[in-house]
Batch of 2 targets.
Target 1
Amino acid sequence: MLRQYELVERVLAYAPQADEAMLNRAYVYTVQKHGTQKRASGDPYFSHPVEVAGLMTELKLDQETIVTALLHDTVEDTLATVDEIERLFGADVARLVDGVTKLSKIETMTESERAAENLRKFLLAMSEDLRVLLVKLADRLHNMRTLHFIKSEDKRRRIARETMEIYAPLAQRVGMYEYMREMQLLAFEQLEPEAYATITGRLAAIRSEGGGEVGDIALSIKQALAEAGVRVEVAGREKHPYSIWKKMAERHVSFEQITDIMAFRVLVDDVGECYKALGVLHQTWQMIPGRFKDYISTPKINGYKSLHTSLIYNNARRVEVQIKTREMHHRNEYGLAAHWAYKQGGEPDGEVGWLRDLVEILDASHDAEELLENTKMAIYQDRIFAFTPKGALFQLPKGATPIDFAFAVHTNLGAQAVGAKINGRHVPLRTPLGNGDVVEIIKSRNSEPQLSWLGFAVTGKARAAIRRAVRQKERAEVALIGRKLYEEIAERLATPVGKKALADAVKRLKLNSEEDLMVAIGTAKLDDRQVMEALVPGSTANLPNPEDWPRQQRAIAVRGLTPGMAFKLADCCHPVPGDRIVGLRRPGKGVEVHAIDCEKLADGVDADWIDLSWDKRTDGAVGRIRAELYNRPGTLAEMAGIFAKNHANVVNLEMTQRENPFHTYLVDLEVRDLAHLTRIISALRASDAVAQADRI
């Protein structure tokens, strides 16, 4: 553990103007506050914040960050408060400490909810000042170094999994590869102990068998470049054990089949020599096609720059070579921590668009699981590059689609997307993008995000925005059907009710707004009697039996509502406009619409029944037909022709039975109304190709 004077001397060595007195006060404060607390290792607890502060000095960070590292656990684990820290160390330090501090554990929260809320607070603080992230990463790295002292295997695995899923990818996103690699290695040891032991054992065996092979290859690379007049430093190492295991899992290969387990770093003086060195290596040894990547011309989203290539050394060994300048190497190892200067007021220089994306995800995420899912999507790395027609570059995850691209450009563009062109060719919105694609989004002001987009959107930003838009539309439509029900309920009261009675009812029911009341009615969280009592207290006092309550007097029209939002057309009977319909309303769910003669209605005895009607302007719906066709060539085509002549679109077609001389199909058709569906069935029955056709 660093002693007080050693820590101060480290800071003064690179920041002579630092406030030595504040550093000393912070060191003493954390020792006093943590007092006799012990870590699982048996060490004094204050050794942890001191070591985290030491990690910050290795990155040569400012005095406020060092003090924050010393104090980062005091608010969570001692009686210290943020106000006290602000009084003693200033507002800047207090804000940083508050950003790193976890929320107090709330017993009513689930583990995932606590994790999500902690992550939410941390990410918001990080978006305002990246130093919060740097302290948090150092805090997690030191905790991982001492993780083996924790006796509970479940707790070790939980911490390791959180590190692998959240903190290692975050370190990667800000380019702190040293932190990322060590976190992954330590987490890998806990999560996959057998695989860890096997791979590290194999690597040790290769080192003992191969002797100086890594050194020999490094020397050969250096000599080849020296003969070409390029001054270089060359270092070789085996690939990271976790990286090897991940490659084995992704490619479904054994350790013996992984041939490129050696990686070499070539450091040169300037960018020109990077490309010169690349040319020399490709002329000296055969390169492996498809393995060259130019991250200098197109850096990674975290600012990483380097040339990557793979060579076949002496016709046997595959080796990976990374070529970069010394400045690039320093930045690549420590990322934003190595080059971010802080302006007055704590604002960092540099572009961090992905941080803004994270803040959007925080605003859009509905619950703990959704926040964690979308955040993980946003911080994982494997990327492709795509361009707008004007040449603007966007980095997206592999598997991204035009919808992801549209939301990456702007949330409004994503919301209004109706189609896309990739490299000038019209494609569906679900089409995966490739590296270098030029993507043009076709938009319409009348368009809005569709729930189906979640089936192919892969970025956290896109998924969060889609879910938010769908939730807002769903709430608006539930409120609309709730208002129709409210108006019908109000008509049953003996006394007319106005706006004041409605406002009073909202207060009596302890709701926040009139819209909340309509949503509660639409989702059956309030029954008719509760609404009546809230509007006119005592109005149902003389009606103790539910059978005596006033009944619905007119049907509620479903025009203007989207199937799947406020209401759902039942799959059992597939009602279409023209059918007599009834709604089943259960607490917390939308209205389920059935045809009045549906056999499944008998299962709805526990639901609130609503009399519904189709409006004359109601859009069509999907009807279902069972058709038995003769088993001979052309019959399916003839049935399809009947659908086309009657302007009905086939949504789904499934063969359910194949038994000579008949084939039976279930067909889902988009139709305008019952009359339209009836005409189609009549046309099918009149066809020589169809043995029988019925609606189901």
Target 2
Amino acid sequence: MGHGHDHEHDHTHEATGAAVSPAMDLSIPDSELSPSDVSRRGFLRGAGLLGAGAAASVLAAPGAAEAAGLSHSHGPVGGGRDKGGFQWLAGDHHIHTQYSSDAQYRVLDQAKHGHAYGLDWLVITDHGSNEHAKIGVEKVNPDIRKTREELKGLLTFQGLEWNIPAAEHATVFVHPGKNEVAVLKQFEQTYDGSQQPATNTEAQNEATAIAGIKFLAAQVKARKVDGALFLANHPARRGIDSPHEIRNWRDADPSVAIGFEGAPGHQAAGIPAAYGRGGARGYYDNSPSAASYAGYPLESYRTWGGFDWMTATVGGLWDSLLAEGKAWWITVNSDSHVNYLDQSERGPGSDFATNGKYNDPVYSGKTLTTAGDFWPGYYGRTNVGAGSFSYKAVMDGLRAGRVWVDHGRLIKGLDARVRVAGDRRWNTGTPLGGVVQVRRGTSTELTLDIDLQDVPNFAAFVPVLKRVDVIVGTVTGPVADKDTFKAPDTKVVKSYEVNAGARTVSVTYSFGRLDKPFYVRLRGTDGNRTQPGLMGPGVDPYGPELDVVGDADPWGDLWFYTNPIWVLPK
């Protein structure tokens, strides 16, 4: 499939998503809408696609060009790749340093490696803890600012890994500025799980988590910082992020709480014992505990092709959120603490409890074959479609869901758009994370262009993409039970085999005439390890395989995933 096509062209040229319907324009009061637009606005609000916060992530449309995702700013690319009108900036939002109790590297160590391995942006996220809340969040800032000066081609954010009260961990980070430390410090000291009373009930802790997200939103509204984002980390690792908690985080403020890790870091932990740790990819080797959500299956405690069960299962938890119409995006990262094949160790004489950091690492002469992490950028990438090389553009791209992710440099780049059938104008089409509106009965189609990999990755081989899957789900609106984690109407609707030796892939897939709201997302694989998905072969015939603890070489099982595009009838 160098240039495979699966379509029935219908050369109607109706709305392409560049114009916003009255129902979506919140400046128009309900009283001035037609009855049909009032009904439509009610549906969108109920589906979570309209209202406070939602407009900042999915339906923001300050102008027709931006509504269609057609930003053509061409500032400094900083290593970014221009495709589809965006600078695709690769990054990692989950990285630890000597200011974390279980890590060891300087900020500059992580940043220099990440930049050398092709990253354009990264976030320093040391663990929330007593030491970090009191000492580390301030002490790390001069190191971050120095790194920004040293590496001007890398955008270095300050954040932290939040111990979510009653749940797992999350990346929290803010736009750089004079208040970045003050906001993060107040957030951590007030809302981190390590700072909560041991007598708190589960309900109290869940409420504190919601309050924390709302606090971040309030800091943005008060212009203390120019942006703040939340992404839940390794959500299925211990089974303690329940579906209702995830929904509640998102609903607390969708302009802050935007998604979760589609795949965890710690991917080197799966390398077999003869050469590595011999554990589980992502350290996903757990079993249910008293704190776990009882409804999750045992398979959820393992990765699938290196990806979290919530993302990897077609028709599973991620799809259940998308089927509600909720803007909820996926990312990947390194979660780098101590890195595979490194030859350093923590500086001697360190006193973390007193100083909130370890002394600078020193050369050990010993190769860390049992370390579970890769350097940032070495294996996983979160690729963000940005309008320029800037902190704001990266945050805007993440918030808008213009994101695709991959492992092992499986592909070089992609551009996916939903269009009115037959429309090939350069300035039309709705990209990843977007919402296209067309009149009911209009024929729409997906256009996908992939640049295949032609240079070796950091394991010294050229990855080969063998199959691309088109996944479609019906938007059914709000669920009655917030602990729902299935989307029965979502399935793989088409798979394309990639021709051996192809350099690019171009696909057109027809959705036919629109009769109900839906979304589409994409997935691709090297084809080395597949099995039917948990929902059965009729839903996902060739999905990722359940990773085996002790025998899960991450380089032999590569995938990419995209975030969704929604298609809604007017």
